[in-house]
Amino acid sequence: MASWRNATAPVTTRGVLRPGETARVAGLRRDAPVSPALEPFVERYWSVRWDRTGQPPFRSEVLSHPSVNLSVETGSEPRFGAELPAVLLHGVVPRRFVVDLTGTGRVTAAKFRPGGWVAMGGRPPGRGAVVPLGGHLPGLDAAVLLHAVLAEEDDDARAAVLDAALAPLAPEPTVAYRDLQQLLGRMAEDRELVRVDQVAALAGVGVRSLQRLFAGLVGASPKAVLARYRLQDAAAAIDAGTVDDLAALAAELGWFDQAHFSRDFRAVVGVTPSAYLARARAGG
């Protein structure tokens, strides 16, 4: 297989639903550098901050990648049931990630590659769960990390603190893990991959072996991951203003008909593709 370093898409707003709205409300960055030792495991660092003082909450929604996120969060109000500031661990989200931005808040986070948290020796939280870091990654002290990150004001400096804390914990990635990352990259970028048997053939394993691999490392089935990437493609195309025919979009992305596409889209995104398209055309 080719190098795992090219396994994922360029840094974009991929997965962020209605990115134009989010950009107007919150300052989202996804461009802080990842050290070479962590590149096999951490896809990116990201940060966001907002001030909704005297304004209604803003609902931020992300059609999340099948990834664990480690975040350092501050704010004027509790978030995910946690008193802030706190170091939180976000499990793989089965549908979409939803958070209401209220008051003031700030987050600096590491987004791990799918399977990256487990490959680094981390104990994952439950699917969709957000929990205090605690002892989920041996060698990483939540209190020390929180103090060090909050001592910095600049977003890049905060990301650098996260990077410095995680880098010594990174093992040498196994060949199997590198191959998994390459496979995930193909699943994300190749729109012609629409069935699990295609992915298994690409990996050179049987479907059941592929399912076991994903269950153990990624925390989601290959079918769910493949569907998530294609739904991300659909939402991104709609947000970019390049969609006039939803039936054609459904066929291009591998759905048998528009009805099945609409059902799957609504189950994950929360609205039908036609409603999402209408909102995008109205400018949010």
Automatic annotation (TrEMBL):
SUPFAM superfamilies: Homeodomain-like. This is AraC-type DNA-binding protein. Pfam families: DUF6597 (PF20240), HTH_18 (PF12833). Residues 178-279 form the HTH araC/xylS-type domain. Keywords: DNA-binding, Transcription, Transcription regulation. It comes from the Bacteria. GO terms for molecular function: DNA-binding transcription factor activity; sequence-specific DNA binding.
